[in-house]
Amino acid sequence: MPARFTLSFAALLAFAAAGEPARAHDYKAGALTISHPWIRATPKGAAVAGGFLTVTNTGATPDRLVGGSVTGASRAEVHATSTEGGVARMAPVEGGIEIKPGETVKLAPGGYHLMVMDLKGSFVDGELVEGTLQFQNAGRVPIEFEVQSLGAQAPAHPHRR
Fold first, then answer.
1. Interatomic CA distance for residues 114 and 85, integer angstroms
2. Which of 91, 37, 89, 32 is nearest to 65 (CA)?
3. Structural domain span for residue 33
C-alpha cells in the first residue's frame, strides 16, 4: 500500500473518530431566531423539567413567547425564577415574555425558562426531544430540545445534525 494512501486513510479515520462537526441549532419564524433549545436531564420519577433557549427579534414589531409543548410532557409554561430571602421561587409569567424589535431574550437557569410539567418519563442526557414554541404573532414553531446533564447551566455542546 503506498505511504500516501496509508497517511490519508489514517487522517480520515482520525477525522471520523472526532465526530461530526458541530452546527448551529437555530430555528427561524419570520423575524424571530430561536437558538440552542435544551432541557435538563431528569432523574427517574421527576414531574418537571426546565427548558431553555435564546430568542432574537430582528423585525420591526414585538412578539411574545406565550408557551409551548414538549413530547413526553403534558404542558410547557413560561416561568420566571425569583429569589426572596435566599429561597428560589418559580412562577408563571402572565402573558408570556415580550421580545422587542432588536432584542435578544435568553431563557436560562435562574431566570426565565419553560417549565415542562407532568412528565411521562425521564429526559436522558444526549437525546433530542421534539417540542413546539407558541408565539403570539409568529405562531407555533416546531423545534428540538437537546437534553443536557442534570446540573447543566448552559448547553455543553451545540446540537449536531
1. 24
2. 32
3. 25-148
**144 assigned to some structural domain:** yes
Tens of pLDDT, residue by residue over 74-103, are 999 999 998 888 888 889 999 999 999 999
Cα 133 to chain centroid, rounded:
10
- What total of structural domains would you count in the chain? 1
Torsion of CA 132, 139, 65, 76, to 10 degrees: -30
Instruction: Give the containing element (helix H, strand E) for 84.
Output: strand 73-84
Buried b / exposed e over 93-115, threshold 16 CB at 10 Å, is beebbebeeeeebebbeeebbbb
Indicate the pairing of strand 104-107 with strand 48-57. Answer: antiparallel
Which CATH number do you get for residue 118? Answer: 2.60.40.1890
Which single residue is written with the C-alpha cell 407532568?
Answer: 118
- Within-domain flag for 60: yes
Q: What are the grid coordinates assigned to 29, written together?
A: 419564524
Condensed to tens digits (0 to 9), the pLDDT of residues 106-136 reads 999 999 999 999 999 999 999 999 999 999 9
Residue that is written with C-alpha cell 462537526 in the block? 21
All cell numbers assigned to 68: 409551548
CA distance linking residue 151 with residue 128, whole number of Å: 17
* Encoded amino acid at 95, one letter: G
